[in-house]
Amino acid sequence: MTETLPTPAAIDATPAPAEATTAAPPRQGRQGGRGRPQAKPQPTQARAPREVHPALRQLFTLYPKMFGAQFLPLKLGVFQDLLALHPDVFKRDELKVALGLHARSTRYLESVASGLPRHDLNGDAVEPVAPEHVHHAIMEVFRRRQARANQDLRPFAKAQLIEAIEASGLAREDYLLCVRQQDEVSTDLLDAAFAELAEQAAKRDALLRMFEASGKTVAEFADMYGMNPDDVIYAVERSRANQDALSAQAAAQAEAEAADLATEVGDAAAASVPESTPEKTAEVSEAPAMPTDASKAP
């Protein structure tokens, strides 16, 4: 059975270097005109560095591409891979704890939130991260950053959500079903993201209609409205692709509804045909045969 890493928790377990602050030297002088010397401030003690789990140190030594300066999303099943490759290096329980700390760290969650693919231990991309994992990483990083920030970080989180939604290729209903957000903050951010996506789509559709009605080339149309030709191409292609996707979705839905209707009609027709019971069949088989020659009748 495949073991998965723990889900992101609301703590930052990233090992951090020690931070030290040096107090400014006290000024000599008198206070309040009474001739009393200023009290010397107590020196600020350096913050002790966080203890790094021994297994994480070993992972950094063995796989600096994955556990070094840059964190990359790990492939599913990496826990089993590490145990199989290094049975004499890692103890099962210690490795599980170390990977849990790694997966809950803000730096790791930031790499997942950025939309990077999952990587194997060699640092090679192997598979995309599931949309729900990207979404939850975005929201967890937002909560941690917002708790320490003196400004509203919702616009940045909304921009990340928009990128994640577009990268997923899912419709609104499917995306919401996938991520299953419950809290008010997540719901508000998602509503804002989908509202902006709808506005962007409406603008692209309007530009496509204008472009097709103009009869101009892309370069001519862009010059006429003072636009970048690349922006026109992008908007036109996105709008056409979206229309094609909607048409395909509508056709698939109509086909599914037709198939369901045919099944219902077939079931209704089968239900309306009377079935002969065994008792009636026996009665017919046991009835005496009528003579065919009228002269032999009694």
Proportion in helices = 55-70%
Instruction: Name the strands of the widest sheet in spatial order.
Output: 1-2
Radius of gyration: 35 Å
Number of helices, where a helix is a run of at least 4 consecutive DSSP H or I residues: 12
Question: Average pLDDT, to the nearest integer?
Answer: 80
Given as residue ranges, the uncertain stretches (5+ residues, pLDDT < 50) are 1-35, 294-298
What sequence of helices (H) and strands (E) makes up the elements? EEHHHHHEEHHHHHHH
Architecture overview:
With 298 residues, the chain is mainly alpha-helical. The chain is 59% helix and 3% strand. The strands form two sheets. It has a two-stranded antiparallel ribbon. Strands 3-4 form a two-stranded antiparallel ribbon. The longest helix is centred in the last third of the chain and has 44 residues, at 229-272. The protein is extended.
Give the tags.
two-stranded antiparallel ribbon, 3% strand, 298 residues, 4 strands, 59% helix, 12 helices, extended, disordered C terminus, mainly alpha
In short:
With 298 residues, the chain is mainly alpha-helical. It is built from 12 helices and 4 strands. A hairpin with a 4-residue loop joins β1 (30-31) and β2.
Walk me through the topology.
Elements: E1 30-31, E2 36-37, H1 54-62, H2 64-67, H3 78-85, H4 92-104, H5 106-113, E3 118-119, E4 125-127, H6 131-148, H7 154-168, H8 172-179, H9 184-214, H10 218-225, H11 229-272, H12 278-286
Antiparallel strand pairs: 1-2, 3-4
Helix pairs in contact: 5-6, 6-7, 7-9, 9-11
